Amino acid sequence: MAVIPMWMCDRDNSMHESKKEADAHDKLLELAEQFTMLMEENLKGVDEKQAEEFGLLLARNKDKVVQACKGKPDALNDLLVEDGAKVTPTKAAKK
Amino acid sequence: MAVIPMWMCDRDNSMHESKKEADAHDKLLELAEQFTMLMEENLKGVDEKQAEEFGLLLARNKDKVVQACKGKPDALNDLLVEDGAKVTPTKAAKK
């Protein structure tokens, strides 16, 4: 059988078929972590899980964040509708 | 006595000596509000005051946010040190 080279991103142990993809994923997680760290430092008592997911939301939509910062603040509006509903805690809340 | 034209930004009733300055201030507040709205939608139960101040922190440092999104995530590190301490609730916490 064939053996296929894969690339693991050690930030979250995710597997990727190309180095490029793994690098992009690593950069995404790094940016997310930076936003989350900033949040945790400035929003005392913020829920860690939510801060992580909000960091990911910003990192995943970094193009829109850049647009907003470059004079089109309402570019962030798309995140309110588009991603707003999707950011739910990944593990179902224990009853 | 002289009468001097001033420009008021109606988002926070701040007064500015030039239209350019007032416009820049208005854009800053608009960007801050967008970040804050996004936060309040995604961080259920986040403290409103903190969300407002964090929105302002990002808006005030939008150049660093753009740098981070464009491949230099550690640009946000400067905000951890530089602004980290300054973002304290404006009114002293009641004892």
From TrEMBL, chains A, B:
It holds the Pfam family YebG. InterPro entries: Uncharacterised_YebG, YebG-like_sf. This is YebG family protein. It comes from Solemya velesiana gill symbiont.
